[in-house]
């Protein structure tokens, strides 16, 4: 198991990104009535949610909750380095790296690294989903601050 | 980085493929097996025309190499820095992206020195290196060396998540200054070389067998070869 997503997961995220981009650009004259549109969107989301659960297991629903709560922030430094901070359900702030799978949460260290029971934790999945759905908040920091964020200590379960 | 290693060591044995895919590379070997010499040789491969190289280690090597292939210009593109702690290393890596001319080659010696903290420490260190190597545009090639046996039973499996390619150094028992090198790349036939370290600091390289000898403990972690 490596530190990047398998192809099937990449494809699913691409489809989710495409679906969100397409629905945000539907011309007004093609829009259905509100109720019909909500029904179709609800069906699409259920399909995506089931596929997410199938591929990512128990992390899927908690990750979707984090996305709904707009918990993911993309942090950028002047040189273009990035990292992600995710406000967890317990109120703790976790750091996820951009270029590979790493998260400071206890579940990543235990379930992913030690036990290899999951591909990734809910925070990393929330980052992927937030990227696909355009749901990341944005924050610009200095180079020193970004380095501090990348060195943030692993958080204990709270 | 695997291609840079092959440029440093020359063509491997007859079972080698035609091309070496680039991937972050982990160099493993016990104390005295030549990890530092191999990294420096990879840094200087290509002579004066090679990429700018940043070599990081917790302390200075006991001996610096001659210019790559006899070309003194090779040393001019090599930058050596010695961050003593993980925090200092992170600062060095962070500064890479902000440079006007970031290095094309990133080498870290002494991984075991920087693995500090909890069970996720090896993953954090590997992730920091990958972030730093991918932040400049174009990305830098990454090569890191770890002394085996590693500082903990989970270190190697975790590092292997982040380093798809691996180069194993194995000193020949009873034969001083002779080391077998085996390069393992995902989806490729293993490649091999034989190294002979000269008393005055030179290094003699010849193609060698790429296959291992079976179940020997190549990782030095006491649990047999994990692949």
Automatic annotation (TrEMBL), chain A:
Domain SWIM-type, residue spans: 94-132
GO MF entry, a single one: zinc ion binding
Keywords: Metal-binding, Zinc, Zinc-finger
Statement: the UniProt record of this protein carries the keyword Membrane: no
Short name of any one Pfam family annotated for the protein: SWIM
Top-level taxon in the UniProt lineage: Eukaryota
Family matches, as InterPro entries: Znf_SWIM
The name this protein goes by in its record: Zinc finger SWIM-type containing 7
Gene: ZSWIM7
């Amino acid at each position: 198991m490596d530190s990047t997503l398998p192809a099937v997961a990449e494809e699913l995220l691409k489809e989710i990104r495409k679906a969100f981009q397409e629905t945000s650009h539907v011309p007004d004259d093609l829009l259905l009535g509100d109720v019909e549109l909500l029904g179709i969107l609800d069906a699409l989301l259920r399909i995506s949610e089931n596929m997410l659960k199938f591929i990512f297991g128990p992390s899927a629903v908690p990750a979707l909750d984090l996305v709904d709560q707009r918990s993911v922030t993309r942090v950028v430094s002047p040189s273009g380095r990035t990292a992600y901070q995710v406000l967890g359900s317990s109120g703790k702030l976790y750091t996820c790296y951009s270029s590979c799978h790493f998260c400071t949460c206890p579940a990543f260290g235990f379930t992913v690294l030690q036990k290899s029971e999951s591909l990734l934790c809910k925070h990393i999945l929330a980052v992927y989903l937030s990227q696909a759905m355009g749901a990341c908040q944005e924050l610009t920091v200095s180079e020193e601050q970004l380095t501090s964020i990348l060195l943030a200590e692993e958080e204990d379960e709270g | 980085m695997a291609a840079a290693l092959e440029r440093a060591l020359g063509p491997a044995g007859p079972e080698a493929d035609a091309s070496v895919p680039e991937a972050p590379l982990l160099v493993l070997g016990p104390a005295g097996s030549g990890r530092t010499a191999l990294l420096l040789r990879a840094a200087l491969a290509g002579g004066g025309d090679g990429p700018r190289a940043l070599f990081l280690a917790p302390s200075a090597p006991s001996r610096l190499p001659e210019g790559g292939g006899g070309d003194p210009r090779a040393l001019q593109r090599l930058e050596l820095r010695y961050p003593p702690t993980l925090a200092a290393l992170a600062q060095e890596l962070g500064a890479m992206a902000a440079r006007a001319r970031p290095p094309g080659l990133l080498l870290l010696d002494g991984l075991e020195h920087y693995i500090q903290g909890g069970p996720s420490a090896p993953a954090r260190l590997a992730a920091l290196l990958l972030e730093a190597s991918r932040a400049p545009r174009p990305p830098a090639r990454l090569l890191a060396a770890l002394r085996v046996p590693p500082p903990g039973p989970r270190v190697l499996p975790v590092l292997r998540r982040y380093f798809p390619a691996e180069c194993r150094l194995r000193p020949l028992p009873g034969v001083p200054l002779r080391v077998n090198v085996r390069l393992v790349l995902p989806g490729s036939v293993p490649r091999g070389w034989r190294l002979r370290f000269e008393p005055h600091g030179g290094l003699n390289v010849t193609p060698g067998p790429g296959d291992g000898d079976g179940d020997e403990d190549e990782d030095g972690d006491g649990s047999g070869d994990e692949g």
